[in-house]
Amino acid sequence: MPRDNMASLIQRVARQARITFRSPAGPAFGENLHRLQQLLDEVRAEDLHLAPRGPSAAAAAGGGPPWAGVVPPVSYMHICETESFSMGVFLLRSGACIPLHDHPGMNGMLKVLYGTLRIACMDTLPAGAAGAAGAAAAPPLPAAGSGPCLRALFRSRQHYTPASPPCLLSPHTDNLHQIDAVDGPAAFLDILAPPYDPQHGRDCHYYRLLEGPPAGAEPPALPREVWLVETPQAADFWCGGEPYPGPRVCL
What we know:
15% of the residues lie in helices and 34% in strands. By secondary structure, the protein is α+β, with helices and mostly antiparallel strands. The chain has one domain: Jelly Rolls, CATH 2.60.120. Helix 1 (6-22) runs antiparallel to helix 2 (29-42). The longest helix has 17 residues, at 6-22.
């Protein structure tokens, strides 16, 4: 894409996101979502004035290892937010993980800008739903003090790079996911619709998979039914803030 068009691309993404998520139950939602996905797929790191970072540069600047309370494992660059959606960039240090979490009643789109992400996606299952073949009839016993257990369908675990199409989630499909930076730092553009809002029941909850290690060398096949337990935010995970260096977005 020519450089003189770069400043307009993220603006066009934001405008299309506003159109798409202004009426998520409308008849044109599918068509608008597809158009947004096409635009998002065009975005590259240089469009947002981002460059891949070395795995230890931030730690050296902070005077200690990334997980020693000096440098956050994950940083967020806010781009824009309306009542219907929010958009920003997440930057993960080498080896960082955004733990398994949910997006209650929300749609989402994730586009890798640099690096490689491993994204595990799951769906919650209704309490009275019929169990899948081979699924456990009862949840394993969680540790004392843990939160409630819930059944989920572990749908996929895939690697995403800048060449991959966006990863999509809906209120009912792939709504829970875990994001790991693989073999170095990574960054992704993130759209959530509507934004998190605890006052309207859209708060982030964290979960842990309740199962032992796989019996063989290969992980169990997917999709499969699993049990999850709600947990507090992990002590070694927190998100810092950084200024967004890219083209300004006006809505």
